[in-house]
Fold this protein.
Amino acid sequence: MSAFNQDAIEKLTYITMLSKNMKVTSSSSSDQSLDCIMPQFVLCLRDFNLELSIDGKEITEDEYLEDCLKTKEVETPEDEKYNRPRECIKKYFTHRKVFTFDRPAGRSVMRRLDTAGDEDLNEEFIQETERFMSYVYDCPGKVLLNKLPVTGSMLAKLLRVYVHAINEGSVPCVEDAMVTMSRLENERHTKNAVEEYKTLIKQIQLPVFDKKKLQKSILEYQEDTLSKLHSKLLFDTDNKIEKATKAEMQTLYEQIDKQNGDLLYENCIAKIHEMHKKIVKTNMKKGKYAVAGGHTIYNSDMHELFEEYNRDLKIIDLAVRQRAQNDFENEIIPESKKIMEEDKMYSEKEMKVAIKVETIKQDFVKTQEEQHKTLMAELDRQNTQHINEMENIRKAEREKEKRKQEKYKNEVAELRRKNAELEAFERFCQQEAERQKYERWERRRAAEEAERQKRCILS
């Protein structure tokens, strides 16, 4: 088989020696277990001009390879040397593939092959090359024992562990190498996840007034970052690494939450000072509190100020607002004491005035009471006189009313008498009218009877 030159035989012999001094796990050194870490065997035969046939029967390229890998019966050292590379290939490379390539072009093109274009190459060579490239690109990536694909950084770390073990004269162990590689890879992925998380939370514009909104955003960033990290971690079966990373992220969240709280606190303090200047300071200039009871008015204004402050900043966490309010109240204690002292001073002055006014008021009330007694006595006298006068008037009115009633009774009796005479006259007239009516009726009936008898005689 022309493909197996001396250089290829030496390389395959080295693979055989390496396999005998290498183990997959610390408890196993089986050659069969090396299959999981060995690459696919792809053989490329250039300038291939042999016929793909055995005993006149056409065969595929892969069948041609398998035919070439057949071993001989060992009779001489040369036979053993012939068999060794073939046995290694079949033992350690369970997935084997062969591609045959015709000459790329004619002799004239081969002299300038580096500058030749696709149009200068043989069509069959181009097709064979495309088939080879398609196969290589479609081959699945190498995976670890846990079926995760091997990346470039993973491979580099594994090779460093293998080479270090060989240089130290120890037996390279795939399992130990993977543990070391996994630790290094997990550290890298964890560091990248934390950095990505830091980058995301740094994008948040502080301060965020709504703490729940901040928590939601941070939690979304955390879940997204941990989800990506979970898919990259190697052999983290108990989730220790993920939990440690989450704890580190929580520490970062607490830091940004404190920073946000400090900014919100400053915002609250600035808001209170602004409202205090606008309301209380203005009233102080107007002298609103420089009166008796001014401290009570001052406390009422401060109460309204804090109520308005909490309404305007209700989206901010209550604890932050309360801390700012308490600190401000401590800050204005001297102002409150000053107003209280002024209140006391004006209250004392007002008390002296009130006592003086009360004395004047009592004297005035006493004078008013004496005048009231004199006035009431005069009113009693006038009232008695008025009652006597009214009694005389009522007595005269009763006499007058009595005479009117007697006159009225006489007039009513006369009216009743005249009414009786009128009623008797009306009855007489009615009876007379009835009598005359009856006489007329009798006369008419007699005339009709006479007329009837006269007609009877004439007839």
Observations:
- The longest strand covers residues 41-45.
